[in-house]
């Protein structure tokens, strides 16, 4: 039987974003043909890639889950395997299994304005066969992580270390850390997840950080949500819980931006209350930056603080001089003994899964493009993408983008349009980074991403309420969009 390779929409990535796009197409546009190309052998994206102990969401699941599928598990901060189960349920309930092509890693995509279609080249990971797919629209649900490798600084003397050095992105399945001394290098979300998770089995776990991050304790279970699910049922409860959590998260974020000194005092005070009297909070949990200049690190039920208070984990704030045979020598002269060193030193970012985009044989240089409504690219026809929020649940943005994408397709079909292309109407408009955060992983890679604008639909504000206004309720027609009818030859701007 011949395998279909031509579609109305080709989705790249079977993670949160790609599955979300497919669900929206399946329910809102049942006649649309589509396929999902997934480079790995399983759905889940991030939640399938990372296998380190304790891997979990750092957003509440009622808002991190889809708007169309209530989150019913008791845990509000969920482990990766629970999230993957949820995604598999979405795939099954929406009959997406036959639409997913596993093992296809997309290498390039070229749009032809004469044909009004994309030609996508993918290589199959098992057969090494190169296959071409064609589609009217390309939807990129690739996220922004580089799946090939995480970020690890160069450490002097690492070759002399007699133990294991592991990056969380490449966690060995058979690693036995029971009774071992573990040093976790880092202070971000991965580090604060690993430390309490490994402390249950390890002899001792030390979090070694160059500088501290804001760590915020939240309940692992939402008592209000669990009560509402029982009283009014999951469907009605979902709407209430989701709205509550969005308002709470947005309230915290806005407070951090408007009153950083007050929020800094409250956040650090919350840490101080959960640690033993006399613990050096000023050194180990007092960051140099303002709250939400970088992401807050969430810890469910204060598990990190409990591990420290119990003596099973500790925090050292210092700089690394070099690795030794038995551990790490610090600039202060202290040496940390270690059997295992985990380099939770960050991620590498890459735009759109490193896919080489081109329009009429002209390569698209992403930093030269500007994002339109944070979901399309200037000068690139019939392309949409989903990049979630950095200051809120990722999926809230995915849902809005997918809704607008379906409305855009409806609009084009009802008027006989073949192509749509965002065109910048003011070439003098200032352009800014698409993600405005001081985090190291952002600063290292953001120059390779498309840029945001500063006016109109070109802004990227990471503000859910504003995106609701323009993506859910705003019109599809826009002076910045150039539509080309099917009856006319398509000409690129």
From TrEMBL:
<dbReference type="InterPro" id="IPR020946">
    <property type="entry name" value="Flavin_mOase-like"/>
</dbReference>
<keyword id="KW-0285">Flavoprotein</keyword>
<keyword id="KW-0274">FAD</keyword>
<dbReference type="Pfam" id="PF00743">
    <property type="entry name" value="FMO-like"/>
</dbReference>
<dbReference type="InterPro" id="IPR051820">
    <property type="entry name" value="FAD-binding_MO"/>
</dbReference>
<comment type="similarity">
    <text>Belongs to the FAD-binding monooxygenase family.</text>
</comment>
<keyword id="KW-0560">Oxidoreductase</keyword>
<dbReference type="InterPro" id="IPR036188">
    <property type="entry name" value="FAD/NAD-bd_sf"/>
</dbReference>
<dbReference type="GO" id="GO:0016491">
    <property type="term" value="F:oxidoreductase activity"/>
</dbReference>
<keyword id="KW-0503">Monooxygenase</keyword>
<dbReference type="Pfam" id="PF13450">
    <property type="entry name" value="NAD_binding_8"/>
</dbReference>
<protein>
    <submittedName>
        <fullName>NAD(P)/FAD-dependent oxidoreductase</fullName>
        <ecNumber>1.14.13.-</ecNumber>
    </submittedName>
</protein>
